[in-house]
């Protein structure tokens, strides 16, 4: 990962000053995320700047399923005929404005994938809910495809993500 940051589970870090420029994501992080963690509907991981201990970004991660029929045929023809395909969902992802444009967003997406690979639990793909068209463009840049043209839910098969990362290494 980018050396000046470490990624850890949400704990007692200061969340009050976090500002990613999207009020709904700020408000969720300041006031609601702990409740979701307590209820075990999502876990939250934070990137901390080593030099200052500031929260530079966060993402939430939970198990989910993709209905087989929602995936493109080119993919489903290689999968067993179960009604749903196991996946993980990055429900929210945000980088503080002071840290945007330093590739931390991409690092957090791949941190979620690494965590899943190490978990010992199978997941075929990572699913994201993009909040607007700019976020869709960010995820498409990282190889995600839309699940449905009308909605902003995208997916990336984990096998493909791992191949992309190997190719992008110097
Ligand atoms: C969107 C967001 C997560 C991106 O994080 P970031 O750390 O600023 O972006 P990165 O520096 O990791 O960008 C990595 C790559 O994606 C590209 N990228 C970033 N935003 C992009 C966009 N909107 N469209 C297309 N590509 C984009 C960058 O050019 C960069 O390309 P490179 O690796 O080839 O140089 C961040 O800007 C943010 O938190 N925004 C506000 C909240 C939000 O929109 N969250 C989205 C999830 S709902």
SSE map:
Layout: E1 5-9, H1 23-38, E2 43-49, E3 55-67, H2 73-76, E4 84-95, H3 104-119, E5 125-129, H4 133-141, E6 145-146, E7 153-157, H5 158-168
Parallel strand pairs: 4-5
Antiparallel strand pairs: 1-2, 2-3, 3-4, 5-7, 6-7
This protein binds coenzyme A.
Coenzyme A is lined by residues 20-22, 25, 93-95, 100-106, 130-131, 134-135, 137-138, 141.
Verbal overview:
There is one protein chain. Strands 1-2-3-4-5-7-6 form a seven-stranded mixed β-sheet, with helices on both faces. The chain has helices at 23-38, 73-76, 104-119, 133-141, 158-168; strands at residues 5-9, 43-49, 55-67, 84-95, 125-129, 145-146, 153-157. It has a single domain, classed as Gcn5-related N-acetyltransferase (GNAT) (Aminopeptidase, 3-Layer(aba) Sandwich). The protein is of the alpha+beta class. Bound molecules: coenzyme A. Coenzyme A (COA) binds next to strand 4, helix 3 and helix 4.
Bound small molecules, by name, code or SMILES, are: coenzyme A
Q: Which secondary-structure class do the elements indicate?
A: alpha+beta
Domain module count: 1
Contiguous uncertain segments of 5+ residues: none
Proportion of strand residues: 25-35%
Radius of gyration: 16 Å
Shape: globular
For the biggest β-sheet, the strand order reads 1-2-3-4-5-7-6
Q: Tally the helices: what do you get? A: 5
Distance between the termini: 14 Å
Tell me what the CATH architecture is: 3-Layer(aba) Sandwich
Helicity level: 25-40%
Total number of strands: 7
CATH topology: Aminopeptidase
- Average pLDDT figure: 94
Main pleated-sheet profile: 7 strands, mixed
Instruction: Using the coordinates above, name the CATH class.
Output: Alpha Beta
The quaternary state of the protein chains shown equals single chain
Tell me the name of the CATH homologous superfamily.
Gcn5-related N-acetyltransferase (GNAT)
N-to-C SSE string, H for helix and E for strand: EHEEHEHEHEEH
């Amino acid at each position: 990962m980018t050396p000046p940051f470490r990624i850890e589970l949400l704990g007692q870090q200061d969340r009050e000053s976090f500002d990613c420029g999207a009020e709904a994501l700020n408000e969720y992080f300041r006031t609601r995320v702990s409740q979701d963690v307590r209820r075990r509907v999502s876990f939250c991981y934070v990137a901390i700047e080593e030099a200052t201990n500031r929260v530079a970004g966060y993402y939430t991660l939970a198990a989910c399923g993709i209905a087989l029929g929602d995936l493109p045929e080119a993919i489903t023809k290689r999968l067993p005929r179960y009604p749903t395909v196991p996946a993980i969902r990055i429900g929210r992802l945000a980088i503080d404005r002071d840290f945007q444009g330093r590739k931390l967003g991409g690092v957090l997406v791949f941190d979620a994938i690494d965590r899943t690979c190490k978990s010992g639990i199978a997941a075929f793909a990572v699913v994201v809910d993009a909040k607007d068209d700019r976020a869709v463009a960010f995820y498409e840049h990282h190889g995600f495809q839309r699940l449905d043209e009308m909605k902003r839910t995208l997916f990336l098969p984990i096998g493909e993500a791992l191949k992309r990362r190997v190719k992008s290494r110097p």
